[in-house]
Structures are given as C-alpha cells and as structure tokens.
Design a protein that fits this description.
Blueprint lengths: L1 E10 L2 E11 L3 E5 L6 H9 L6 E6 L2 E2 L5 H4 L4 E4 L11 H12 L9 H4 L16 H13 L5 E5 L7 H16 L3 E6 L2 H4 L5 E6 L2 E6 L1 H14 L1
Parallel strand pairs: 3-8, 3-9, 6-7, 7-8
Antiparallel strand pairs: 1-2, 1-4, 4-5, 9-10
C-alpha cells in the first residue's frame, strides 16, 4: 500500500503541494487538475525526484522519504515520467536491460514483461528514437515494471496519443492492477483519466478539493459550472 500523509513540497516560496494526504491500495488512483495544480510534483516526490518540506510517504508502512532516488526502484517504486526518458540511441532491449540492472534486488522475482506486453516482441531490436510516441510509452512502462515494483507512478500516460493507443495503454494499466500493483497517476484531462482510473483526486493549487469515481467528479464539476 502507498500512503501519503500531509505531504508538502515547495519551489522557492511557493507551495506546489500543500498537506496532501491519500492512500492507494490495489487500485488505480489518478490525480487530476489544471496545469500547476501539483499533480506531477506529488509523483516526483514519491519517486524521490524533489525534496519534501514535510509529511510522510509510506510504502507498506515504511517511510521512504529518507531513501535516496537510486534506491527507490529497489524498494519497489516504479516511475514513468511524462517525457519517457528513454536512451534514444539504445535499442528497446538495451533500454529495458539498463532498468533491469539498476533496479535488480537479489532474490526478487522479476515480472514477465513479454507476457504482459506482447507488443515488445517486434520492437526489441529497434532504436528507441525510431518508435512512435505510443510505442515509447509502452517501453517506458516496460522499464518501470521489469523488476516487479509494488507501486507504479504514471505521469500523463495518455497525453498526445491516438485513441487506439490510449485504449491499448489503458488495458495495460488494468492488467497491472490485476497483478496487484498500487498505481498512482497524474492526468490533466479528466476524460483521459476516466479510461483507467478507479478513483480521481482533484487538485487545485496544491490542495485536494474533491475525491470520487470519475463519474462522481464529472458530476461535481458539471454541478459547479451550472451553479455559476
């Protein structure tokens, strides 16, 4: 289980995340909101990419804030950034192998990514720079899951993709949930988040202002617009 308790993160004098608390347990939770709402910052804090002012980030009851960035994957936290961060001159196989080596833990069973992502079979020997945006997303997911982390973080997973690829990647997320992963995502678009999220957490100016299923959040937004 992933639990965030009163997380606060600042950039200079501005609080990007202000006492955010949430839990993710065997589900897909998606942070939504306008640009600058703090969605990506929450993910980056869990991944160890930004300093935290205060609060706790607990994975299975252990506070991981003091664990350095390069140890987070070993401790079962996988992260797919919005810009994918692939090594463009490397082949797909080489990109995945780098992640496998970097996150390998002695005695830990690795995930069978070929079974979960059959699309990989035809891509292994291609350079990453030659792939489409959707294919690069799939490779980013493969790198994040190869060492079988318990917590997965996906930032703007469906951004810029054709509808057919959005459906395919949403199906991959559902498979990962069925494998027992705790999944926390960030999407600017509520419609995109609705493809795969069990629960939406709406952020505004770094604070949680609404929580519910995609249908419940849509209804709340519609009611708020009508009330104006």
């Amino acid at each position: 289980m992933l639990e965030i308790d009163k997380l606060t993160v600042s950039y200079g004098t501005e609080k990007a995340v202000n006492e955010v608390s949430l839990k993710v347990s065997g589900e897909v939770v998606c942070l939504c909101g306008r640009n600058g709402a703090g969605k990506s910052t929450v993910l980056r804090a869990v991944a160890g990419l930004v300093d935290v002012d205060s609060g706790q980030i607990l994975k299975d009851g252990q506070d991981v804030i003091t664990i350095p960035l390069f140890k987070r994957l070993e401790n079962g936290i996988g992260y797919v950034p919005e810009d994918r961060k692939l090594f463009k001159e490397m082949t797909v196989r080489e990109n995945i192998e780098v992640a496998r080596i970097g996150g390998r833990v002695s005695g830990k069973k690795e995930m069978n990514i070929d079974e979960l992502l059959p699309e990989l079979a035809s891509l292994y020997n291609r350079k990453s720079k030659l792939l489409s945006g959707g294919q690069q997303k799939i490779i980013s997911i493969a790198r994040a899951i190869v060492t079988s982390p318990g917590v997965l973080l996906f930032d703007e997973l469906l951004e810029g993709l054709a509808r057919s690829m959005m459906i395919k990647i949403s199906e991959i997320v559902m498979k990962l949930k069925a494998e027992g992963k705790d999944i926390l995502c960030a999407e600017s678009s509520l419609d995109k988040a609705s493809h795969y999220a069990d629960r939406i957490i709406w952020l505004e100016k770094g604070r949680i202002v609404a929580t519910g299923s995609p249908a419940e959040i849509k209804r709340q937004m519609t009611d708020a617009i009508r009330a104006k």
